């Protein structure tokens, strides 16, 4: 876990800025660690969320392989996992049904309320959601689709590595998400991100101020680029 104050600081940046900062700190992050396929953000006006990944996988096109008693025991164990440290949690859910991803919704009015009550901030899934009007207030959702039915949706596993929209996530990873998508933040790089974001802001300000001023042209852009190179 990282310092709570640092976690809050990371919330003040949008997800693209976090991606940019990670590229400065670790250039290899230009090619990994973030969602690369579009996810539907139902609440785009919400601020970014940052928390620790609670990973699960689901299926919905066939009935649960477990009998009712064992399925209930699995579900209780799952809720214990969701409520455990580290916190706050961000649910990261992979739908395993291949071309039928999103066939049945694991997420709706009840599940959003339960997970919010257990201390989670939102969900990032390549599966589906429903019950939009009854969704728990303040609980963010990035999903592959919206559907009306839950079909045979059930837990396949939890606490293991998942891949959602091209982003590989392990249980406990730091996840930052907003309307643009999501990115994982290595714990050993987290402290360097605010300074990298500040550097980015100062460099971008030179270009933006010049571009937004009257009389902007290529000569002034060349001047701004030269000034930008002097900022460290």
Summarize the helices and strands and which ones pair or pack.
Blueprint: H1 4-11, H2 15-25, E1 40-41, E2 49-59, H3 68-83, E3 89-95, H4 109-117, E4 120-125, E5 128-129, E6 140-143, E7 145-146, E8 154-158, E9 162-164, E10 167-169, E11 174-178, E12 181-185, H5 193-212, H6 218-229
Parallel strand pairs: 2-3, 3-4, 4-6, 5-7
Antiparallel strand pairs: 1-6, 2-8, 2-11, 9-10, 11-12
Could you characterize what this model shows?
This protein has 232 residues and is of the alpha/beta class. The protein contains six helices and twelve strands. Strands 1, 2, 3, 4, 6, 8, 11 and 12 form an eight-stranded mixed beta sheet that branches. A two-stranded parallel sheet has the order 5-7. Helix 3 (68-83) links the parallel strand 2 (49-59) and strand 3. The radius of gyration is 20 Å and the shape is elongated.
